[in-house]
Amino acid sequence: MYPLFDFDRAPVKCHPAPRQLAVEQMEFYAFAHFTVNTFTDKEWGDGTEPESVFNPTAFDPDQWIDALKAAGARGLILTCKHHDGFCLWPTATTPHSVKNSPFRDGQGDIVREVSDACRRGGLKFGVYLSPWDRNSPVYGQGEAYDDFFCRQLTELCTGYGELFSVWFDGACGEGPNGKRQVYDWNRYYAIVRELQPNACLSICGPDIRWCGNESGDTRRSEWSVLPTGFAKPEDVAENSQKADDKKFREKKLDATEHDLGSRAFLENATGFAWRPSETDTSIRPGWFYHASEDERVRSTETLIDIWYRTVGGNSLLLLNIPPDRRGLFHEVDVQRLREMGDYIRKTFAHNLAENAVFTADLDDGYHPAENLRVNSYDAYYKPFDGDNAVTVTVKLDGIHDVTHVVIKEHIPMSQRVECYAIDAKQADGTYREIAEGTTIGYQKINRFDPVATDEIRIRIKDSRICPILSFVGVY
Fold first, then answer.
1. DSSP of 395-424, one letter per residue?
2. How do 269-274 and 225-230 pair as beta strands?
3. What span, in angstroms and rounded, lies between the C-alpha atoms of 28 and 74?
């Protein structure tokens, strides 16, 4: 029998592990899809591509890193092996790798050069390794393929320095023998945990979850505290009054649904886990480079909008930029990334709240609103437990045109806020609501038309137990 939780208290006992918190603070990082598909003009290779087709003529990973830094990205995940099975490092597991290509006369290692470029440029490095291998003759043979895959995973986890992410998708099709493989995920996870304990296991892994689409769409209410399972009515403790509630029904977790963490959705949860959202999308229609898409690169405005809704909506942004056949980011992509970064840097260059006076109508006497001035987890604002509705006032040093208010929860103590509103003080002394929202989580960036004001008021209208905030910025 499962007891029903106190849904105000049980979810807030769930908080991020240090590796999850580190990745959430990265906010925005990149994907680079690069393999034989780049040269065959395909999205998915079938595993029969000759190694000879892979030959980037002007490969320069430092050019990639410069473009990503200009955009504000803080890391890069490389597709070290996609579904075609071609390995971008000289693996000992298969001849289907860069070692048998013309690149660097067979002496090259794309993974090495990209990981080294990341470290030179101050970006973190991660790896993507597809579990589906359309080239491997042992794919679909159970333990034999798991052994093969684990050797590849071990090579990547031991040969290229510290990784911030090991990214798995769930692709599972037929191999060359016509069979499908049942992946031994727990074995894969154990290797990463042992060899790269600070790396997040992403998407088909327990640390970072897929947002539910690849188009850049986001949720209005994005929760990082998710249920690990649901009880059936007959499994609930007999003395529970909710066992007979008509709303109590069998549920399942579907990454594509809009509600993954509300009180109503959690009402028959059997446990909780911290699993923040990652939004993976491409700067182009496809994931790999195609010359036919050079005129279809997403506009700067679209990229900025995606950034606001992801980084500003409690989701990580994983933006794919596919290298072309030269081994470079295309000039159009580079221009878009630079324009995106320029806009973000200009918009958030000066925090008007740096010299503001912070007050709150309620606090616990130990964690005052003044702690919200600094963007850090070293201090926070907190009222007493049970004070679920509170108001924080930010008195600026004069009248300013305000267009953005950034709010962060103190997620080392979980995610709590369920509903909030933001008001601006007007010349006549009254307040006008300028923004509203539901969840906050790691960060919520509220943007609105310019309003001239010298005082911003943040009303937390409801939360779990009590809200705990770490930062408020005004721009």
1. EEEEEEEEEEEEEEE-GGG---EEEEEEEE
2. antiparallel
3. 6
Contact 192, 201 (CB under 8 A): yes
The alpha carbon of residue 92 and the mean position of all alpha carbons in its chain are separated, in whole angstroms, by 32
Contact 236, 1 (CB under 8 A): yes
3-state SS class at 37? helix
Q: Which residues contact 64 (CB under 8 A, 6 or more apart)?
A: 32, 76, 114, 117, 321, 323, 328, 329
Tokens (6 digits) for 233: 């009515």
Tokens describing residue 365: 């006497």
Distance CA 199, CA 158 (A): 12
Q: Which residue is listed with tokens 């995920």? A: 185
What's the token pair of residue 439? Answer: 């969840």
Residues of the chain with pLDDT under 70: 1-9, 233-251
Nearest Cα residue to 70 out of 351, 445, 343: 343
| Count of CB atoms situated within 10 Å of the CB of 392 | 25
Dihedral angle computed from the Cα positions of residues 389, 394, 395 and 396, in that order, rounded to the nearest 10 degrees: -160
Read out DSSP for 176-238? TTS------HHHHHHHHHHH-TTSEEEESSSSBEE-S-SS----SS--SEEEEEE--GGGB-T
Residue matched to tokens 């289907």: 96
Query: According to the model, what pLDDT value does residue 250 have?
Result: 57
Looking at residue 400, its pLDDT comes to 98
* Both tokens assigned to 243: 């066992």
List, in order of start, the domains of the chain with CATH numbers.
12-217+276-347 (3.20.20.80), 357-474 (2.60.120.260)
